[in-house]
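User: I'm writing a short report section on ligand binding and want a predicted complex to refer to. Could you take this sequence and MTE and write out the structure as tokens? A short remark afterwards would be nice.
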Amino acid sequence: MIIKTSRNGFQHPVASEITSRAVYLDRRRWIQNMALGSAGLGLAAWGSREAVAQAAYPRPGKLVPLTGGRSLVAGATTVEAVTSYQHASTYNNFYEFGTDKADPARTSGTLRTRPWTVAVEGLVQKPGTFDLDDLLKLAPMEERVYRLRCVEGWSMVIPWMGYSLAELIKRVEPMGSAKYMEFVTLADQTMMPGLRSGVLDWPYVEGLRLDEAQHPLSMLVFGMYGEVLPNQNGAPVRLIVPWKYGFKSGKSLVKIRFTEKQPATSWNLSAPQEYGFYSNVNPEVSHPRWSQATERRIGEEGGLLAKRRKTLMFNGYEPQVGQLYAGMDLKKFY
Ligand SMILES: Nc1nc2c(c(=O)[nH]1)N[C@H]1C(S)=C(S)[C@@H](COP(=O)(O)O)O[C@H]1N2
Ligand SMILES: [Mo]
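Assistant: Sure. The structure tokens for the complex follow:
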């Protein structure tokens, strides 16, 4: 694979990714007016009994717009408001930039996201290094509204921009021996003040079974709220696996490896009894130190006293992903 050096400056996508404000607003209206029936594109078709149109949300207008050719809403079981951009971009877990929720928004300005490459290695026929610009063009950009459920007991509803991870997987042609994927994220002392702390072994590494990674809901994400990702949310490219606790979705990805054996993952290494390899959202399997039966929606009125919501099996995506775990003891494979 040829490595191309980006001719675009910091956070300036190629012209094809930039949509005029008018087109953008038009698309917004279309989403707003999208009836259940017209959501029958791709994934939404099989989630459509649960899917409901989300309220439109404003594009914050802080970063470069990133728009998708089509939009879909996946996995909402009730009408749920999209979390405000303000909350989604200031209440973050990104330990490379500090462990306080407010740290990443404050300290991630030092992250340089251009040039950026993602190396794909291991058990594939076509290993290589992808330039971010090539990744942006690899498949049509889609907008998907997913719930994000953190293992700590809070959740958000976020409109992500990206495409199925499966699009990348099929291009590199996994060998028959490939059973797992390992996702390695950036660990650069010069840009990430949090690396000085020993909370985790750096780099932050996560993993998925190959069939989980190939599931169409698993998403390679480049943007949110119609713009490129802000640094604190994992710029320039991250994973989103919506039926698993948030920590499975690594931010600022630099390397993807296909392996035969289950990869060792950062959170599992740091506390194996608390964070399993699977970490599927499951209200019936408690964390050793707290119940996972309910969650607090970030941004809802009432702060810490706000009414908690019931956590849904597989974060509400059971109809789509339940089959991946047929016959598995989910208490054992937590
Ligand atoms: N590299 C890296 N990725 C990471 C984390 C991290 O600390 N470092 N935190 C994870 C956790 S615990 C959660 S809940 C989500 C939070 O994503 P958000 O800040 O975009 O909501 O990112 C995940 N990805
Ligand atoms: Mo999390």
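A remark for your report: The pocket of MTE (ligand 1) is lined by residues 92-96, 148, 150, 185, 204, 233-234, 246-247, 249-252 (CB under 6 Å). Residues 1-55 have pLDDT under 50 and may be disordered.
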